[in-house]
Amino acid sequence: MVAVPAEAHPDPLGLEIADVVSRLRRAMRRAARAAGRDGTLPGGLSVAQLELLSCLADNPGTRPGQLARMLRLAPSSVATLVYGLRRAGLVSRTGGQLDRRTASLKLTAEGTAVVGRWQEVNERILQAAITSLGPASRGALAAALPGLRELSGAVDALADEPSAGIGPADS
Prior knowledge:
Helix 2 crosses helix 5. Strands 1-2 form a two-stranded antiparallel sheet. The chain contains six helices and two strands, in the order ααααββαα. It is mainly α.
């Protein structure tokens, strides 16, 4: 939750967008699970594992510590996820023989295929949902894309700033 200075009031647009994004994320996860065989996600993986693989697809050669910072996860959580993904043959680790912190991670060919299937699942879900919308809603979504892309970049930038002012709000 964003920390809001005492003299400021939350922007209603920010509150509404946060609510919609949160609902959309939950709906996408539910729909993805429903779309998989027997309710499983691609490769039988968890959302956390698929998010890690997707992040690694965008940032090949990333070190585990960097991955933890990018995903905002504890290094031990990333280590556990990476261990399972390496055992499944989806991630390879190179370097770091003497110092484990210098190791870099890359997707294997199978890892890349799983990320592709995960993207396809998400695309199918969104295509089906968009098709069910009326022309006015589809047009509004198309018109909002530039702003949503810019918003996504701004949120990413906040995640990269150590003193971004995001965190638990003071009560």
